[in-house]
User: Which sequence fits this backbone?
């Protein structure tokens, strides 16, 4: 495995579908309007990489960026 | 059906879907999927002269372009009808465009977050079981009339703080607005008037005796300048929550049950692997998306290379987008373990359905409780499944059998 993954939710694109929160609750929080935010600095803990990609590939607004560091 | 002059003539049958489509044609109502495939193969955006002129995007890409483009496409009309009277009876935020849209939507979002839905879930589970208790011993039922219809009605009534027993009234109004209203303006206006009077009574009561339900929340909401919402705005949003919260989820639960009744392998797998439920629900939402929205073209533009002109409506078919094979491999195949599924059942862009978390919770609970009590069931060969016409698609008659019946 290469470097760590980092996720970021683009706040201009997120519309609060909440698919990411449902698929990867360890990586995303929802605010009072139901819009998603990456938890902490967005670095994906070991073992949760698949969940990060799953959340990314189910977001209808393409609002989640996953980058490899 | 009213016999007044406001009733438009019956539509002639469609012979040329590409140039003359009609989403109220009985063939569309019965099985729209091959029609969309035929149109998609022809062009990403087709046009009909019916409904005073209307476009239909058939690809995911075209639907997405329109949903994101609030400059050329207005939400002030969200139902494609035979008539296009002056816009009255708005229902913010669904009928709002920027900049009015965002503040109207933000008022409604907090009561519908997933956390808020978790608090409502036990009541919905109880509703499902109360309903099943009434017919399980019969070994058969029309699940659309006895089960799927009542779950969203009672859930939204519970949230709004109005009697669950008024459900039949709500369903009558919704039928007048979403189905009869396409051709019959009086039916639509009567339904809106009765609804407005009904809610006015509940608003008056709360002025004297405040409650902590969703009606009171809206009555006490203030805009960004601290000004309370007008009665019209409160009424409009209540109309929206009632109309949008019932037919839609009734359809979603019904289509899911219909699929499971005719697909024993999926039914057995879901019973054996309950953890698959969220993925299966997303697939039912994709494959049997209930809701088609509409837009009005305000300025000339092009969509996926096709010219689009003002004066026309757009039938914004999220259901057709969700069957586009260039977006979803094997799009016409229902795969309850489909891993990648960016379906647009709840819309795309700023008008994402405000009740999506409620709808998902209701669908999940309704299917879970049904499968717990009635794991083995099938379509009743003596009956016939009937589908709703127009804007929201789902079974309105769903005869099911189980046990020895």
Assistant:
């Amino acid at each position: 495995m290469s470097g760590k993954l980092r996720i970021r939710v683009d706040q201009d694109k997120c519309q609060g579908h909440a698919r990411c929160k449902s698929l990867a609750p360890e990586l995303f929080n929802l605010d009072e309007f139901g819009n998603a935010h990456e938890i902490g600095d967005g670095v994906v803990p070991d073992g949760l990489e698949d969940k990060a990609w799953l959340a990314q590939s189910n977001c209808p607004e393409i609002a989640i960026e996953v980058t490899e560091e | 059906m009213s016999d007044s002059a406001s009733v438009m003539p019956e539509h002639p049958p469609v012979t040329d879907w590409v140039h003359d489509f009609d989403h109220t044609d009985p063939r569309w109502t019965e099985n729209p999927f091959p029609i969309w495939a035929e149109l998609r193969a022809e062009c990403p955006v087709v046009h009909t002269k019916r409904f005073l002129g209307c476009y239909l995007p058939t690809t995911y890409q075209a639907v997405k372009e329109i949903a994101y483009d609030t400059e050329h496409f207005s939400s002030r009309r969200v139902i494609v009808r035979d008539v296009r009277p002056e816009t009255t009876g708005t229902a913010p935020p669904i009928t709002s465009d920027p900049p009015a849209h965002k503040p109207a939507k933000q008022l409604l979002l907090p009561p519908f977050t997933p956390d808020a839905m978790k608090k409502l879930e036990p009541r919905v589970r109880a509703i499902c079981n109360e309903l099943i208790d009434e017919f399980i011993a019969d070994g058969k039922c029309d699940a659309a009339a006895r089960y799927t219809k009542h779950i969203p009605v009672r859930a939204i009534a519970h949230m709004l703080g109005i009697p669950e027993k008024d459900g039949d009234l709500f369903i009558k109004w919704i039928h007048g607005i979403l189905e009869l209203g396409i051709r019959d303006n009086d039916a639509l206006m009567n339904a809106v008037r009765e609804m407005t009077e009904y809610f006015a009574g509940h608003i008056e009561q709360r002025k004297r005796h405040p409650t902590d339900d969703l009606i009171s929340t809206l009555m006490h909401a203030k805009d960004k300048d601290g000004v309370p919402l007008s009665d019209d705005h409160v009424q409009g949003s209540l109309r929206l929550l009632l109309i949008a919260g019932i037919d839609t989820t009734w359809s979603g639960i019904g289509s899911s049950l219909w699929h499971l009744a005719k697909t024993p392998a999926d039914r057995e797998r879901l019973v054996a692997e309950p953890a698959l439920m969220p993925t299966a629900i997303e697939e039912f939402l994709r494959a049997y998306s209930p809701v088609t929205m509409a837009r009005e073209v305000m300025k000339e533009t092009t969509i996926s290379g096709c010219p689009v002109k003002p004066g026309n409506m757009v039938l914004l078919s999220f259901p057709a987008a969700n069957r586009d094979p260039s977006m979803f491999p094997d799009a016409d195949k229902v795969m309850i373990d489909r891993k990648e599924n960016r379906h647009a059942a709840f819309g795309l862009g700023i008008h994402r359905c405000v009740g999506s978390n409620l709808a998902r919770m209701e669908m999940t609970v309704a299917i879970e409780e049904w499968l717990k009590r009635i794991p083995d069931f099938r379509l009743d060969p003596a009956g016939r499944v009937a589908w709703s016409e127009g804007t929201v698609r789902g079974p309105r008659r769903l005869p099911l059998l189980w046990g020895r019946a």
